[in-house]
Amino acid sequence: MADWSSYIKGFKAYLQLERSLSGNSVEAYIHDVMKLTQFFDASSLNLQPAQVELKHLQDFLRWITEMGMTARTQARVISGMKGFYKYLLLENLVRTDPTEMLESPKIGRKLPSTMSIQEIDLLLNAIDLSKTGGERNRAMLETLYGCGLRVTELVELKISCIYFNEGFLKIIGKGNKERLVPLGSVAQKRLTSYLEFVRPHIPLKKGFEDFVFLNRRGSKLTRVMIFTIIKDLIKKTGLKKNVSPHTFRHSFATHLVEGGADLRAVQEMLGHESITTTEIYTHLDREYLRSTILQYHPRG
Predict the structure, then answer these.
(1) Domains 5-90 and 117-296 share a fold
(2) pLDDT exceeds cutoff 60 at 107
(3) Confidence of residue 76 (pLDDT cuts 50, 70, 90)
(4) Residue 84: is its pLDDT beyond 70?
(5) What's the distance, Cα to Cα, between the start and end of the chain in Å?
(6) φ, ψ of residue 283 in degrees (nearest 5)
(7) In sequence order, which ranges of 100-244 are alpha helices (DSSP H)?
(8) pTM value?
């Protein structure tokens, strides 16, 4: 099998330095390129990136389809391939781009799963504040929902980025873009309580002094830990829904749009680069309007 490690190493540096992508996005791109090398390995094809042709990539797509990959995952893998060859062209490591004619599978815009305000209250009220981590978890999930944060933005949140007097959080989002997010009264109250009465009793690990949410060893929490906390709450409440940290963000945006918030303001709050990403919430809103009218209109 041809050694692609130097190409992949260069691609990784390009994504980090030139594209300023987050660690998770970089890993996703690298994972997609590694999938292609696995396919060549399995097919006993000894090819350098410059020798790859469209037919090889089409065979690769058939291979991942047979492995049971969804259309959505395939589309992401193709995006990864295109990014990799864009980098190789920029660096003059290849003369042609075999991904140019590669078509992504057609996928509809998937409407995100959301929770009602009652379901969010049910989950948050199920947190036992008398237990270790209870106050932290309540503050954390109130902030996640109240500010519409991504899970990475939540675990990376710094004390120096909370402006209690002004009622704002400074968030470093995707591509290291900064945005200011209003801090609601409930999230502010829970954060204040956690920072004043709980966090000072946690032994701080060097390098994590400024992180808001810490584990019992004084390090920042991992993304996986947030998923686990939510999963445990779902189990505890018996809520029959597939809920992830992102569901809180989707619910935050949906509740804003349902309440009549301006779409540009919601885009700003979520840190979406394009308004089209925010527009999915108008589809959710239309469905909400339709169900509300059918439920309450005398001719519904």
Answers:
(1) no
(2) no
(3) confident
(4) yes
(5) 65
(6) -65, -45
(7) 117-125, 134-147, 151-155, 185-193, 223-237
(8) 0.64
Cα–Cα distance, 137 to 128 (Å, whole number): 9
Q: Are 116 and 292 in contact (CB under 8 A)?
A: no
- Which residue in 255, 227, 246 sits closest to 116, CA to CA? 255
Q: Is residue 280 over pLDDT 90?
A: no
Q: Copy the structure tokens of residue 219.
A: 């390090």
The domain 117-296 is placed in CATH, from the list 1.10.10.10, 3.40.50.10780, 1.50.10.20, 1.10.443.10, at 1.10.443.10
The domain ranges of the chain are 5-90, 117-296
DSSP 8-state secondary structure symbol assigned to residue 214 = B
Q: Which phi and psi (to 5°) does residue 272 adopt?
A: -75, 135
Do residues 183 and 169 lie in contact, with contact meaning Cβ atoms separated by under 8 Å? yes
Residue 59 clears pLDDT 60, i.e. is over it: yes
Which residues belong to the active site?
150, 174, 246, 249, 272, 281
What span, in angstroms and rounded, lies between the C-alpha atoms of 132 and 128? 9
Per residue in 142-177, pLDDT (tens digit) is 999 999 899 999 999 999 999 999 999 999 887 778
- Does CATH number 3.40.30.10 belong to domain 5-90? no
